[in-house]
Structures are given as structure tokens and as C-alpha cells.
Design goal:
By secondary structure, this protein is mainly alpha-helical. The chain has two domains: 68 residues; 33 residues. The chain has two helices and no strands. The longest helix has 66 residues.
């Protein structure tokens, strides 16, 4: 009678150990998937961090440029330079393509 109880106990213990081992394998597989996901997220965050840093640098450059206000004399000089450049380009185009002359 003692032997059959011990055999039943060993059989129950063996089944319990198998269930625990199976659960541990499932948990290990889930941790592997989670670890892979964390790795991918970390890589994505690093890329986004680099992009944000570059954007911040560009924003700082534009802000510094916009902080400098031009005087009306500087603006007029700039406009006159643009007008002269456009006039020069127009004359060059007409020189190269005389058919455009009306």
C-alpha cells in the first residue's frame, strides 16, 4: 500500500513539475519577445532622438537669424540687389533666346 501511495505521489509530482516547466518555457518565450520589442523600441527612440536634436539645432539657427532685424536701409539695398539680379538674368535669357523678344 505504501508503494502505491509513493508511486501516485511521484506521478502527481512529475505532472506538476511538467506543468511548471511548461509554464516557465512559455514565460521565457514571452520575455524573449518582450526583449526583442524593447530592443526595437530603443532603436526607434534613438533615431527619433537624433532627428529631434537635428531639428532643435536647425530651429536655433533660424531663430538666431530671425532675431536679427534688418533696418529699412538694409531691406532697400536687398530689394535693389534682387531687382538688379532679376534684370540681369532677364537680359541673359533674351540674349540666349532672341525669339522671346516681342
Amino acid at each position: 500500500m505504501k508503494m502505491s501511495r509513493e508511486a501516485i505521489s511521484l506521478c502527481a509530482l512529475n505532472k506538476t513539475l511538467n506543468r511548471v516547466e511548461h509554464k516557465l518555457q512559455n514565460i521565457k518565450a514571452q520575455f524573449t519577445v518582450l526583449d526583442s520589442s524593447i530592443q526595437k523600441l530603443s532603436e526607434n527612440f534613438e533615431c527619433q532622438s537624433t532627428t529631434l536634436e537635428n531639428q532643435m539645432d536647425q530651429n536655433e539657427i533660424w531663430i538666431s537669424l530671425l532675431e536679427d532685424r534688418f533696418t529699412s536701409v538694409e531691406i532697400n539695398l536687398f530689394y535693389s540687389y534682387i531687382c538688379e539680379t532679376i534684370h540681369y538674368l532677364h537680359s541673359q535669357v533674351l540674349e540666349k533666346l532672341p525669339d522671346l523678344l516681342i
